[in-house]
Amino acid sequence: MSPSHTEAWLSRSLWLLASSAVALLLLIFLFLINESRLAVVDGHWLRFFDSSGWFPSAGQFNLWPMLLATVLATVGALALAVPMGLAAALFVNFFAPAPLATTFRRLLMLLAGIPSVVYGLWGLTVLVPLITRVAPPGASLLAAMLILAVMILPTVALTSEAALRTVPVNYWRGGQALGLSEQAILLKIALPAARTGIVAGVLLATTRALGETMAVLMVAGNVVQVPGSIFDSVRVLTANIALEMAYATDAHRASLYVSSLMLTLVVVAIVLLGQRLEAKQ
């Protein structure tokens, strides 16, 4: 086979694979919309936000408390994990000796590979009792934030470390030649140069936190309510779907698909926002 034929075959194969990925995404959206149809057949989207609560047997499908809990748990986890992940990435790349950096990187990889149910079990048996000593019942929004922060920390750290590793060493040497301090080089040169990879890692961590089910289900308390504080029990959208899909029927089942569609749209909005911010920068 000639080089030109090989390139043409490779181009067609890549186009087919890329098209398949787009088609799969569209099929998922169409499936969610079709399954949600029964819940919104009358066009009453507002009932998912202005109903008196989540009482499926009474036709009340207020998703707002669970949507709010999902967003709050994710934002809280990011507020904890992103600074620690960036600090870990900077330490591995610029300060740690080579053997220590290698060991630290492997530990992060190990953390990233631990199943979510193991994190949930640890949170239920260790984290929740610790929070209970401060403010019962322990299973709360705070527990969900902490367990999600631990779960997404390796993602932020590893992607940020990989992005920082691609920064040319000449940037560091140029900063030193200009008389800049290490802190100035890190904050003004290294981090901006690796910004694209860091933002991608944060987006991946955000989507994982939004979609996490088992660990949050085990530690959040699963009470459908708007939390008054981080010590209140909550239920996130993914946990609600996992708990009720097995026995849901008719409008109840369709409302759970509405939850899935809503969560998917939130993820899409976050990705588009990240791309928009990156384009502006």
Quick rundown:
The chain is mostly helical.
3D architecture notes:
The protein is mainly α. It has 2 domains: 3-40; 47-280, Orthogonal Bundle (MetI-like fold), CATH 1.10.3720. It is built from 12 helices and 2 strands, in the order ααββαααααααααα. The protein has a two-stranded antiparallel sheet with strand order 1-2. Strand 1 and strand 2 form a beta hairpin. Helix 7 runs antiparallel to helix 8 (182-193) and helix 9 (195-211) runs antiparallel to helix 12 (250-280). The two termini are 45 Å apart. The model has no long low-confidence stretch (mean pLDDT 86).
Strand content: under 5%
Describe the main β-sheet briefly.
Answer: 2 strands, antiparallel
Sheet with the most strands: spatial strand order:
1-2
Task: Please report the number of helical segments.
Answer: 12
Extended strand count: 2
What overall form do the CA principal axes indicate?
Answer: globular
Q: In the residues, how many domains can be counted?
A: 2
CATH architecture of the largest domain: Orthogonal Bundle
**First and last CA, distance:** 45 Å
CATH topology (fold) name of the largest domain: MetI-like fold
CATH class of the largest domain: Mainly Alpha
Mean pLDDT: 86
CATH-level-4 superfamily name of the largest domain: MetI-like
Task: For the structure shown, list the relevant keywords.
MetI-like fold; mainly alpha; about 75% helix; two-stranded antiparallel sheet; 2 domains; globular; about 280 residues
